[in-house]
Automatic annotation (TrEMBL):
Keywords assigned: NADP, Oxidoreductase, Signal
InterPro entries: NAD(P)-bd_dom_sf, Sc_DH/Rdtase_CS, SDR_fam, TR
SUPFAM superfamilies named in the record: NAD(P)-binding Rossmann-fold domains (SSF51735)
Signal peptide: 1-23
Record keyword Transit peptide present: no
Domain of life: Eukaryota
Molecular function as annotated in GO: oxidoreductase activity
Protein's UniProt name: Tropinone reductase
Biological source species: Colocasia esculenta
Length: 124
């Protein structure tokens, strides 16, 4: 059985300021994941998607040096920290393994709880 993994973003699941085009493209990727899962199942191909929040990479490292930005991220994330690359790659690896052979068409957030937070305060 084959497996295709897409990387989306939590921007496809919740509204984020000034990210309309990015969010729309990632939302489309989520739906491609679902449609291909149905279309390609007969061929033994599974598709899934991982939707990360802020993950510490070279792309965001400069922004994470800004204390205001970092506090904004922490205030929206119940775990009060930025994600690490291994937290995304571990899920991607699992989804490609035989142990995940019954999972398909899923969009899974790796976000420290950001997408389920709502208006719940993350600190006292």
């Amino acid at each position: 059985m084959g497996s295709i993994m897409f990387i989306s973003s939590v921007a496809s699941l919740v509204a984020l300021h000034n990210m309309i085009a990015y969010a729309a493209s990632k939302g489309a990727l989520n739906q491609v994941t679902r449609n291909l899962a149905c279309e390609w199942a007969k061929d033994g191909i599974r598709t899934n998607c991982v939707a990360p929040w802020i993950i510490r990479t070279s792309f965001v490292e400069a922004a994470l040096q800004n204390e205001e930005i970092l506090e904004e991220i922490h205030s929206r994330t119940p775990l009060r920290r930025v994600g690490e690359t291994h937290e995304v790659s571990s899920l991607v690896a699992y989804l490609c393994m035989p142990a995940a052979s019954y999972m398909m068409g899923q969009v899974i957030s790796v976000d420290g709880g950001m997408t389920v937070n709502g208006f719940y305060p993350t600190h006292d």
